[in-house]
Amino acid sequence: MAEQITPFESLKAFSGIIHRQPIFLADRLDVDSYHLTFLNKYGEKLDDDSKIPIFINHLTDILPAISDQQKALLSMPESWREALYKSPKSSLNLTLDLNGHALTDSDNTRFGFANHALPQQEIPAADTLLIDIQKYDLNSLEKQLPTWRKNHLNLCAVNVNDFNAYTLCTSHILDLLQGQFYTLPSVKETAKILPSQQILMELLVKLQDPQTEPEDLANTINQDLTLSYKLLRLINSAFFGLPREVSNIKQAIVMLGDKKIKTWASLLCLSGVDDKPVELRVVAMTRARMCELLSKHYKGAAELFFAAGLFSALDALIDKPLVEILDKLPLSSELSDALLNHSGIAGKALNDVLNYEKGNWIAVDHSPVPIETLSQAYLDAINWAKELNSQL
């Protein structure tokens, strides 16, 4: 009897690329929804008559595996629309961008697209207008805003990929933002490391010290009551599924090994940075897991690859250049080189992960890792990070 494929496995079997980006509420940087884009294996838009994939019939069941939001914007070809409408009804609010033509299965949310080459009367009527911020300078943005505000309930800036664009959007009170801005450090020359950041750095130094003995490691973790509590709670959660309960940090080190405990404790330290969007923590976890999955292809140590992905978000979390942060951390030369120069096998994997995250499909195409492997690792990683984030 043939083994039945699960809905999530059918999504992973898609022959093209699936890319997920958060859409933030601009005023507090909480995730409002996710934008899922379906492309061919070269990162190009699919033709409107593209073959309907198996997973479309199960998409409403699949989406909760990679998103805990009740809303999603889906960029897909026209040919998939009818099949999606025939899929089982759910409480999800799905909005379709059919290669630039916005449709929705509810009256709650509609997305249109601002094109700087189009006159205002040709921009689609929509509750929410998507504005490619890279196509507007300050003057043209200020000129268009009154008309946009008059005709649309929400204004969403896309391709907000640096802090100049972010500042432009927030200073003009746009409602929603999408882009890479939140994964970048807000570097200020006069900025000092805050006391909370200093404590975090000191703890990371102790956790990453290669000379630390298991007993010293346990003592370091136990000195931070919040960290030891969170670590034990995580290890004993259904996420780990251990055969018996772990009652103390020493026991955890014996069961999982000091390298894994260092990694998980470091992750929990980074997740405690509370002045950053939660999505940045999700990004750090997703990078870590995807790098770990790619360690099989590159034939490297899983812990090294995981750490490379995790620490790659340190600059954004602490708002300091990575080179300045790593100068204070006793990391191995292999890990430091991977983070700073993307060299070595762990660095190559991290480079793959960052290119996929940014949608840099030309660079992804030049990776030695097949696109099918990268895409499957990406989906597994965002599923894993979602489950882990719910435990944290």
Would you summarize the structure shown here?
By secondary structure, the protein is of the alpha/beta class. The chain is 48% helix and 12% strand. The radius of gyration is 22 Å and the shape is globular.
Fold and architecture overview:
There is one protein chain. This protein folds into 2 domains: 7-183, Alpha-Beta Barrel (TIM Barrel); 195-391, Hypothetical protein af1432. The relative contact order is 0.10. It has 392 residues and is of the alpha/beta class. It has 18 helices and 9 strands. The protein has helices at 7-12, 59-66, 81-85, 138-151, 163-171, 195-208, 214-223, 225-235, 249-256, 258-271, 278-298, 302-311, 314-318, 322-326, 333-341, 344-358, 361-365, 371-391, and strands at residues 17-25, 31-39, 71-75, 93-98, 101-104, 111-114, 128-132, 154-158, 176-177.
Determine the oligomeric state from the structure. single chain
What separation lies between the terminal Cα atoms?
A: 40 Å
Question: How much helicity do the residues have?
Answer: 40-55%
Overall mean pLDDT score?
A: 85
CATH class of the largest domain: Mainly Alpha
Strand content: 5-15%
Q: Using the coordinates shown, work out and report the CATH topology of the largest domain.
A: Hypothetical protein af1432
Task: State the domain count.
Answer: 2
CATH homology superfamily of the largest domain: Hypothetical protein af1432
